[in-house]
Amino acid sequence: MATADITIPEDLKPADGRFGAGPSKVPASAVNALAERGLDTMGTSHRKSAVKKQVKRLQEGLAEFYSLPEGYEVVLGVGGTTAFWDVAAFSLVRTKAQAATFGEFGSKFAKELAAPHLEAPSVRKAEPGSAARLEAEEGVDFYATPHNETSTGVAVDVRRVAAEGALTAHDATSSAMGLAVDVNETDCYYFAPQKGLASDGGLWIALMSPAALERTEEIAASGRHIPGFLDLKTAVDNSRKNQTYNTPAVATVILAAEQTDLLNSQGGLDYAVKRCAASAENLYSWAESRDFASPYVTDAALRSNVVGTVDFEGVDAAEIAAVLRANGILDTEPYRKLGRNQLRIAMYPAVDPADVAKLTESIDYVVERLA
User: Fold this and answer.
1) Strand runs (DSSP E) across 235-299, as ranges?
2) Contact 334, 292 (CB under 8 A)
């Protein structure tokens, strides 16, 4: 049957067909709240009380969600995770970093840590689909790893490297709000809001330990040239006033605060982790039971509960994705640079586990007709 001729029955479709790994699904309730709250905030100064109130709401909501340890702070800046990589290179690394890379996003940060003012980073690399681990190393004062590799669907535990005087940072861009974490085990847990926070992009958010805050002050006072946009001390100082140094997208702040408040009202991190785990069980158990599909990450202990990747055999995954898109089921395409015959499914807290189950029914229907 031609791809264009396949119509998935309505009773097999998810109620909401958005499965993008980022930008991700934004719930209708959040959009409605934005329409209401935005009248008082959008188009006004981000240094006045109306907008600062929303920034504070987000900061306090995240502090509650993560049971933020004493002395930790929620710091915000404009630019997204990509900008924060440069922020970290300028404001958190004294001399040399170690990076664990096992996919596209970890590799990109490792390249940023090769900045001219730093020694060449030590890179611990594993092939996509597996994971690399950080290890204590003489001369390294900053350790960095993804918590969840968005490009491949690999997740690792959050653990601090036992190295005196060093910081450990975790890229939580796609793990935030959906994977278990003890923030005590990291000095900098940073992310952007367009994935687990069911918001738009344009911000970076970092949960920073007292040691990371102290390192920020130390480097700021060292005389190192730091571009204003990337100056972490400036971001910290402004965050303490419930604002960002540069003008933020106010809509992004409101949407992220709405999702955070919603998850807190339903049980916080524990609730969100269980919800994502239920979605992942629906996806991976289905893939393991099909002759034409299998989880891309072969080690079950490394499979992410927020981004699932499934390989296909004997059927073109791109055709499946095209049929799904034509039927209103969106953004299941794989990460482009992997070049695999696979689908990538986001399972953030905003995604209903029942919709993941319906997605698998839709795929079954499409595969049967393509075959």
Assistant:
1) 293-295
2) no
